[in-house]
Design a protein that fits this description.
Length: about 300
């Protein structure tokens, strides 16, 4: 069977995150963090190895809190995203301390990936279905010899991704033919209204109604290995245009969208019916704990993920 990898972007986590960063709080019944569930579901779906993208300054803490445990269950490798990891001839602008973004993070795994792979955020709970759908696509459907990049994406129902504690920003998918993505419409401050409607704002800060069954991207993609070469090749041009901006980021969704518009990539949307959980607000922690407890009680997960 074709090999597959899961890449987890965790370089944004703070040093000594185990004690204070809300996304890495112990939320499962036996002290699991959200990343534990993603790894459990990925291994169950059939992924062969896990690649963590972290920073050097959190490596010891990261291994202590999760890495050493997971290395006993699966092949694990580490890539390091640092502010000064730039192409030859480029340097970090004075005063910049913001990371270069998710596409820059993926560049760091180039030497570790030799197969199709999925990429996720470290601090999001995706559920089992997305890992299963993407793994099946990578193994059975992805055509790596296609003249354009053959990609896929787990598409969540927007109503399954909301917070009860405030508004959220989502990339609403505009669908093309045969289940392929046409474009992603960034929509901000989405919140359910007292009458049940979902309202948000568009890029021009104008109010828009969002269909409750709309599909949104939660940055869970299935990608071919060679796509990484394109990220590497395009980064200098991006730096030439944006490298002196203090807050500009080289972002994976934007690069995928650009390739789609240029006719160099297709993205198959795999509809995912699971609920997505994230700790957007401090108050979300209690709701996530309750949801995980319910999934355990329903038999979806064992009381203790990893013995």
């Amino acid at each position: 069977m074709k090999k597959t990898a899961l890449v987890i972007m965790a370089a944004g986590l703070g040093s000594r995150f185990g004690g204070g960063i809300k996304q890495l709080a112990k939320l499962g019944p036996s002290g699991e963090i959200i990343m534990d569930y993603s790894i459990h579901d990925a291994l169950e779906a059939g992924f062969d190895k896990i690649v963590f993208i972290i920073r050097k300054d959190i490596e010891a803490d990261f291994r202590e809190i999760i890495g050493n445990r997971i290395e006993k269950l699966a092949k694990c490798e580490y890539a390091f995203q640092e502010l000064d990891k730039l192409p030859e001839g480029y340097s970090v602008p004075e005063g910049r301390n913001k990371p270069w973004g998710t596409a820059h993070a993926l560049i760091q795994v180039r030497d570790l990936i030799d197969c199709p792979f999925a990429v996720i955020n470290a601090d999001d709970f995706y559920g089992k279905e997305g890992f299963r759908l993407i793994h099946e696509y990578l193994v059975n459907e992805m055509d790596e010899d296609k003249p354009v990049f053959d990609m896929c994406m787990a598409g969540y129902i927007v109503g399954n991704t909301l917070s009860d504690n405030g508004s959220v920003n989502r990339g609403v998918c505009v669908m093309g033919e045969h289940g392929y993505l046409h474009e992603i419409d960034e929509t901000y401050d989405i919140m359910r209204q007292p009458d049940g409607r979902l309202m948000g704002k568009d890029a021009k800060d104008q109010p828009v109604e969002v269909d409750g069954n709309a599909i949104v991207s939660m940055n869970m993609f299935g990608l071919p290995e060679k796509f990484l070469d394109t990220l590497v090749e395009n980064f200098p041009a991006w730096l030439d245009q944006h490298g002196k901006e203090m807050k500009a980021e080289y972002l994976l969704p934007q690069e995928i969208s650009r390739l789609m518009l240029e006719g160099k990539a297709t993205v198959k949307v795999l509809k995912d019916h699971d609920r997505w959980f994230g700790v957007t607000y401090q108050e979300d922690k209690e709701a996530v704990q309750k949801s995980l407890r319910e999934l355990v009680d329903q038999g979806v997960y064992p009381e203790k993920l990893f013995d």
